[in-house]
Amino acid sequence: MKLFGISYTTWKSVCDMYFSLNEGSKKAYLQWFPFTKLSKKDEETISGEDFYNTYIKTASLVLFSSVMHQSENFLQKGDGSFRDSSLIGPILYLTLQSIGMEIHNRYNPMRPQGVSAYYAGNYNHLRPKYKQDYDDFYKELNASIGEYQYFIKTDITSFYSNININKLIDRIDKNCNANSVVFSQTQLQLYKELLLYCGNGRFPLIENSIASSYLATIVYLDEIDTALYKYITTNMHCFLSFRIVRYVDDMYILISSDKSIEFLYESYNEIRNEYSSILKSYGLALNSKKCCLKKTTEINQELKKSLYDEFFNGKKHNIEDLFAGALYRFLQDLSIELLFDSVDVEEYNKLINKHFSSPDIEFTPSEVFNYFVYENDNELNSEKVVDEIVCLIEQSISFVSLDPKRLTVMIMKTKSEKAIKAFLSQLFEKNRSGKWNSYDTTIAISYLIQRQFEHEDLLMILSRSCPSLYEYYILYCKASVIACFDSTKTNRLCKIIAQDYKAHYLYFLYFCEIKRANYMAAFAYYKNYFDRVTADMDFVFSNNRQLKRPNYKGFYKEKAISDFYKNVTGSEVVIKKAHELRNSNPLSHASSGLLDSDNTSTELLESIKDLSALIDGYIEKWYEAQEGESRPL
């Protein structure tokens, strides 16, 4: 049984999609950076059938704790606050994207033809990046300006973090399993648990994750968009026609009407209230501050446009000419604001709007600024710009926290030894003075990515300030993730339980409950897992050829298990304690004695550790015995 329901075709397609990214894209994001450490041989191994059959099809990847890394990421919103985002190991990341593709291949959206929905990336075209699909969304809106006179813009508050995963899984179940069972209840439960695991208890917001964007947009909002479309069709008689175009949580309702805009506000409020009510039933809320009704001639002011497509009205605009000297003037103004200690995120964004906006182009100021930071090195490396950046840093690097990624990249791309040295010096001083915070961590990450993580002193600060990030670096950014599968002990276990999907199921749920600190549930799953693995070992290691399958019913009683492990030192005490805990665990036994205990978590965790040691000890002794028998006398 394919426990996560991932076919080899899907696994290979997803691997190829990410491995074929250009090096610049891989190096630009912390979530993708580990892919830069894979050799061609590593890529062939990971995308190969042997790897798939051993670790993905069986779900044995969950047995390797180093593969299952999950921690917080440091992604920021436009206002400078941090998103509730996750960072996961690269193999786990590929697994999540593969599950998203399996759902995509079977899910049939119910949206009517009058609704278009775009998400970040595209499974149909195997596009892992958002650019093309955002541009398609933009172009559809732009192409509609001539047909529709007005538009309503809407936005959802904290969209990802408020998605109800139970409702999401129920939606997948009802849609994909409508005519026949495509995803079993076991698989649906595992999808739910994996999403919760990756999102640390919430729907996961993961950097550049097609799966997250697809599930959130195409699946979760499907019924919502359909209900709103039906309501407008039935009730808005003042509309000659309308169309809904969505990109993730941003939705535009394009309206054709023979009435002036003043007569449409009542309909606008009615639609907004209805949309808000529909969202509420799905645990979501409308962001009223970002809603508006305007003429379509103003739609470009509400959109963000990619800089990669520079053609408008058949004319190619030269960004350098339109904004010659803008970067220098922006830095000068920023320096003045810093001098008077009056700059915050809002003022910083005002400066970007001031210096990088133009009525002659459709690009937003932020996108023009991106161009000068990421695409155009000429002005960035000019002497007066470099000197201004050095002056800013010498004043204080506090300004970098306003926009850590872009400003750190900008400093690094000056290639000025003076600027970079001053920048690092102040970072180290913040650490020495005990003033290091999450913004400094974000700055450090941006710097380290630019430097390919080649700065031991900064890495040591990261190891103390954010151990989970440092672990991510050690496991995946310092060397290839393939090394995580080198454990002889775990690979031996994989072979023993290779055909036992129930053992993998039990272990994964134990692992999820441990992550949530639900220790009684974790112990219940682990004890059942331990019993099954014991039966698997008895079957694999036994010379009794009469057995056709493991005797799972024979290994749940204390005596049978004690007899099996009798040659492992201390096993009797460990097994006795484990059975006492199981028989008092309210999730396993009606006596529920653990509810009266004052120290249950410590006991449960120690018992799990001891049971795990028994499995490892038995396997090691068996292999040692086999090696001893094979040695020549």
Account of the 3D structure:
Mean pLDDT is 90; it is low at 304-316. The protein is built from 28 helices and nine strands. It starts with 7 loop residues before the first helix and ends with a helix. With 633 residues, the protein is mainly alpha-helical. Helix content is 55%, strand content 6%. The longest helix has 31 residues, at 600-630. The chain has a five-stranded mixed beta sheet with strand order 3-5-6-4-7, with helices on both faces. A two-stranded antiparallel sheet has the order 1-2. A hairpin with a 2-residue loop joins strand 5 (241-247) and strand 6.
Helix percent reads 40-55%
The tally of beta strands, per DSSP, is 9
End-to-end span in angstroms?
44 Å
Structural class: mainly alpha
Radius of gyration: 29 Å
Strand order of the largest sheet: 3-5-6-4-7
Contiguous low-pLDDT stretches (5 residues minimum) are: 304-316
SS element count, helices: 28
Instruction: Indicate the proportion of strand residues.
Output: 5-15%
Mean pLDDT: 90
**Shape by Cα distribution:** globular
Largest sheet: 5 strands, mixed
Helices and strands, with pairings:
Elements: H1 8-19, H2 23-28, H3 40-46, H4 49-56, E1 70-72, E2 86-88, H5 90-106, E3 115-118, H6 131-143, E4 150-154, H7 165-176, H8 185-198, H9 210-220, H10 222-235, E5 241-247, E6 250-256, H11 265-280, E7 292-295, E8 311-312, E9 315-316, H12 319-322, H13 326-339, H14 345-355, H15 365-375, H16 377-380, H17 383-395, H18 404-413, H19 417-432, H20 438-450, H21 456-465, H22 467-477, H23 488-496, H24 501-515, H25 519-541, H26 558-564, H27 571-584, H28 600-630
Parallel strand pairs: 3-5
Antiparallel strand pairs: 1-2, 4-6, 4-7, 5-6, 8-9
